[in-house]
Automatic annotation (TrEMBL):
SMART domains given in the database record: RING
Protein name: E3 ubiquitin-protein ligase RNF166-like
Keywords, alphabetical: Cytoplasm, Metal-binding, Zinc, Zinc-finger
Superkingdom of source: Eukaryota
A UniProt-annotated Pfam family: zf-C3HC4_2
InterPro entries, per database record: RNF_E3_ubiq-protein_ligase (IPR051438), Znf_RING (IPR001841), Znf_RING/FYVE/PHD (IPR013083), Znf_RING_CS (IPR017907)
Organism listed in the record: Physeter macrocephalus
Any one GO cellular component localisation term in the record: cytoplasm
Gene that specifies this protein: LOC114484137
RING-type domain location: 67-107
GO BP term, pick one: protein polyubiquitination
Length: 143
């Protein structure tokens, strides 16, 4: 009975409407909290790629031009023709090795022959200076 009280105490401490880590509030056979977190991350990543982008400073620019796989500024960016999502060329390579590739972001099937160099992104990044990881200097992006 002690374990029941401690569990109830933890639930009560979390308060109404708050999730307790490791517990599914849905009750039943639905997807667990891990799937909800995954969907939240995907939605967040999709919102980070607006066509016009944020107008505020380097951090907004860096967020707009970050690969959703490695979370770094794009390196040799490529775009999937069917959905338009952009990734580093190297990051997308594992997806191209399977018979029926899916976009890592939206999971739509795509034709590997219709993955092209994202020239528009490279052009915009050519004038962008990224923060150096070792110091606070801004350095040009490599081609």
């Amino acid at each position: 009975m002690t374990s029941t009280r401690s569990r109830r105490g933890r639930d009560a401490q979390a308060g109404p409407g708050r999730a307790v880590p490791g517990r599914d509030r849905g009750g039943g056979g639905g997807p667990g909290p891990g799937m909800a977190m995954f969907r939240s991350l995907v939605a967040s990543a999709q919102q980070r790629q607006p066509p016009g982008g944020p107008a505020g400073g380097d951090s907004g620019l860096e967020a707009q031009y970050s690969c959703p796989i490695c979370l770094e500024v794009y390196h040799r960016p490529v775009a999937i023709g069917s959905c338009g999502h952009t990734f580093c060329g190297e990051c997308l390579q594992p997806c191209l090795q399977v018979p029926s590739p899916l976009c890592p972001l939206c999971r739509l099937p795509f034709d590997p022959k219709k993955v092209d160099k994202a020239a528009h992104v490279e052009k915009q990044l050519s004038s962008y200076k990224a923060p150096c990881r070792g110091c606070s200097k801004k350095v040009p992006q490599p081609p």
